[in-house]
Design goal:
20% helix; 161 residues; Alpha-Beta Plaits; 4 helices; five-stranded antiparallel beta sheet; alpha+beta
């Protein structure tokens, strides 16, 4: 990412931020504190004004953008607690998983672990309440419900970890 800065005599400063698609975000900070935000389709095109903010509002929005109030944390493990000891968990099926290319009945997951599959995410599709004849495929994400220990056993059984 490249940022260009230039002085605007009698006005303030201008910053141009190159975006990934070749367009630019242009931010003009006036000496009064007012901010104007523009978008340019390319370095040579005219600017289109998107919005204007007062100094106070610009600073508030800036703290939101920098993550002062919420810092997202990307996690590979998703765990949702329902009640005191019941979890809702997402478990991805790897290529070498012992349940890949087997039906739910063949894999015997509920009897082996005590957790139940309530849905399967496959590409852009969600299979809700899958039956015993549903085939589990590598790349599927199994949505499981059960006690914490059962969900842990389930994840270990499916991933081999």
């Amino acid at each position: 990412m490249t940022i260009y800065e230039s002085d605007l005599p009698g006005v303030g400063k201008k910053h141009e931020v190159e975006l990934g698609d070749g367009s630019r975000l242009v931010i003009v900070t006036h000496n009064t504190g007012k901010r104007e935000v523009f978008r340019r389709a390319s370095a040579d095109s005219d600017s289109e004004k998107l919005f204007e903010l007062s100094d106070s509002l610009a600073r508030q929005v800036g703290t939101l953008l920098e993550g002062a109030y919420f810092q997202p944390v990307q996690s590979t493990d998703i765990e949702t607690l329902l009640g005191d000891n019941t979890l809702l968990e997402w478990v991805e099926v790897g290529e070498d998983s012992r349940v890949a290319d087997k039906t739910l009945a063949e894999s015997d997951l509920r009897q082996e672990t005590g957790a139940s599959i309530i849905a399967i995410e496959r590409d852009d599709e969600v299979i809700t309440s899958p039956g015993g004849d549903t085939v589990v495929k590598a790349g599927d994400v199994l949505i499981v419900i059960g006690p914490r220990a059962a969900c842990r056993d389930f994840a270990e059984f499916v991933t081999g970890a």
